[in-house]
Design goal:
Two copies of one chain form a homodimer.
Chain A (H helix, E strand, L loop, with lengths): L3 H11 L3 E2 L2 H6 L14 E4 L3 H14 L3 E4 L16 E4 L6 E5 L4 E4 L5 H8 L4 E2 L10 H6 L7 H4 L2 H4 E7 L5 E4 L12 H5 L8 E8 L1 E2 L3 E8 L3 H13 L6 E5 L1 H11 L8 E8 L1 H17 L6 E3 L2 H12 L1 H8 L4 E4 L2 E2 L5 H15 L5 E4 L4 E8 L4 H20 L18 H5 L2 H12 L15
Parallel strand pairs in A: 2-4, 3-4
Antiparallel strand pairs in A: 1-2, 5-6, 6-10, 7-11, 8-9, 8-10, 12-14, 12-15, 13-14, 13-18, 16-19, 17-19, 18-19
Amino acid sequence: MAHEAAIAALSAAFGDQCVTTDAVRDHHARGEAHHTPVRPDAVVFVTSTEEVAKAMQICSAHGCPIVPFGVGTSMEGHVVPLRGGVSLDLSKMDKILSVHPEDLDVVVQPGVTRRRLNEELRDTGLFFPVDPGADASIGGMTATRASGTNAVRYGTMRECVLALEVVLADGRVIRTGTRARKSSAGYDLTKLMIGSEGTLGIITEITLRLFGQPEAVSSGVCTFDSIEGAVDAVIMTIQSGLPVARIEFLDELQVRAVAAYSKLDLAEKPTLFLEFHGTDAGVAEQSERFGEIAAEFGGGAFEWATKTEDRNRLWRARHDAYYACRALRPGSQGYITDACVPISRLAEAILETKKDIADSGMIAPIVGHVGDGNFHLAIMIDPEDAGELKAAEALAHRIAERALEMGGTVTGEHGVGLGKMKYMEAEHGDGYSVMADIKRALDPQNLLNPGKVVQIN
Amino acid sequence: MAHEAAIAALSAAFGDQCVTTDAVRDHHARGEAHHTPVRPDAVVFVTSTEEVAKAMQICSAHGCPIVPFGVGTSMEGHVVPLRGGVSLDLSKMDKILSVHPEDLDVVVQPGVTRRRLNEELRDTGLFFPVDPGADASIGGMTATRASGTNAVRYGTMRECVLALEVVLADGRVIRTGTRARKSSAGYDLTKLMIGSEGTLGIITEITLRLFGQPEAVSSGVCTFDSIEGAVDAVIMTIQSGLPVARIEFLDELQVRAVAAYSKLDLAEKPTLFLEFHGTDAGVAEQSERFGEIAAEFGGGAFEWATKTEDRNRLWRARHDAYYACRALRPGSQGYITDACVPISRLAEAILETKKDIADSGMIAPIVGHVGDGNFHLAIMIDPEDAGELKAAEALAHRIAERALEMGGTVTGEHGVGLGKMKYMEAEHGDGYSVMADIKRALDPQNLLNPGKVVQIN
């Protein structure tokens, strides 16, 4: 066993909370995506900030890598312990520490999942909007700068995290930010930690912005004759400042998958799923305006889901899009892409991608948070077939390169992890070396999730 | 002359653009606030990123400090070259490089001022919302993480800057961020540079978010019988999710000053200046809702300024509040405070502050961007009177300490500069040492605006 002394020290300190069984190590060897699993040498289940600091100190003293693990929904292999060592499981740190309805914020531990948070908030009249689909942990969402369907209206984790508690590589505990809405007091360490993927520190507490539950909500579906029409309608919607809460694109293949899997009656055409939040009058006005825009771009009638249960069914179907894709080809696994481009380039990006998919001969439905210029392919491959994996990589590569050519990013919301490391230099140029400088300054031994975001040795 | 070799090299490289006359050095010795001026040894007027990089390289080779200077509206002494050296004047880098109406963004040089930007944008139907009152440069606003009257709706520079070009301490030029709306590609260097006050790099290009000019705008004034009433109305407005565009508090003394200076007919009572943005129907609905809230908290009738010229007069008066304060006591200068607290503590913070002002016997009107929990005192002192300066410092100190006790920040929007250095350890704890680690990593010689934000030698 590697890191023997560290694991022995952790065992002594943590007793039963330090686990080395194969089953538990296997569970912590991977996230949800296709990346090759690597087993940690041990998994330490922590229950408090003090325990995180203690584990960190032991790892630091022994030069043992430590990789935070939430609920394992990562799409880019963030949680894979590339160099072995410890997988630090934070899922038991799942307390909602304090709700401040009067300040529209909440303080949570990192293991709280977003669905549970919203269940607990229901009676306060408030909600936490960021919604990546999966029932991810808030810690993981913070560490990967996650977003999702309603970022177009409420922002991403970048905008919705106010303050953090973080355990540093040397075991010190810092607090970044305050509960004040804004501050000009020095470097923005909160934003530096958001999206740092466990490479600069371990997040042990998160203060989140909350929003009032909208008085009125309307959701609906609008089909288009062409992809251009659908995407141009989105672009016009955003440009006209319509405060749409969700605007999701599904190409015809994704619609077919979703309709079959979720038993919805949908025409197999490029489609937008939409949602409006506001007052009764505001929602009515927004819907009407969107209807006018859609008509201008060849959109069909806007089909409403006004009842809560119909709305939930619609968004459940959207969230199950990945499972729907897998059902298109039983036994397959998705290789997921995550390009995000300036919205003016979105139609072009998607159309060229459609050509690439056709050329590749692969099954790859498209779904997108198009209001932000972000879209995903689920390239459905046989995970045992090396040729298919290679072909998927080639297709994903073309999409990433095009995003960069268009002034966009290779990852809109899934993070760097393992999958996007190879594009960081191209995306950031000399800025990438600044990231390395920061990593070296905060984690000189390179113990915090080594090999992710930026290589320093 | 100190830094003789550096200045000689800069003179050789920059010719007439490198100025050492007393008048120009004096102009670059201070911002707008009370901090003791320090002359730079030379002022270098740059016109391009290449020139900034060249100046930086020369300073780096000679170990000469370099302090960026925009238009000098800093409130916290940011531009004071504490250790002499070079004041780098970026005001001639004032090009609007590209407007992308279809993506709602614009790329500008740092010397562009916010008023000119909005004048140039007028015909596009778009505007840049961040409005600190003064006609500051966009570079300075970025470097200090500025905000202002309508941050409550549109966010601060933290939210409104998408991407940057930055010259590093070694003269390398990096680009941070992209024009995509969101990204999860590694550490957020854009946010790290926003608010870094010229201590981590020199900002040479800024990509800003734009917003559609609202179809309808309504502004108005509402007076209250008590400060509690006014502030509680604000708190309720924010908590109810009303998307107010501006909500500014003025205490009765500030109202007296503004009424006299700007010749407005205002009752000498705690007052809110408000603005709503939206569609005609949306604005009407918002105003009505606010009226209901105000009535609940003892607010008087809401007086409208529906004509553009009346609206402009109202906000002009708000922006001239500082000059109005000076007119209260001719010959005086303002010592400005900048606390920001969680909104639930705002009424308490302001009421206790009122007691402190009364105890101090000083003239100190209060004005606040209260929707964000941020409020300012202008403590009007005789700048020649050391006793008054000391008394102002004591009053400002009580306000800063209280902000920290209440879980807030000592600076909501003016930045650290010279004035807030002494509170950084108290506000950030061990996090302050992380800021020092970052400063050391990016500016090991401590040449970039040394002595600001964080001390490293």
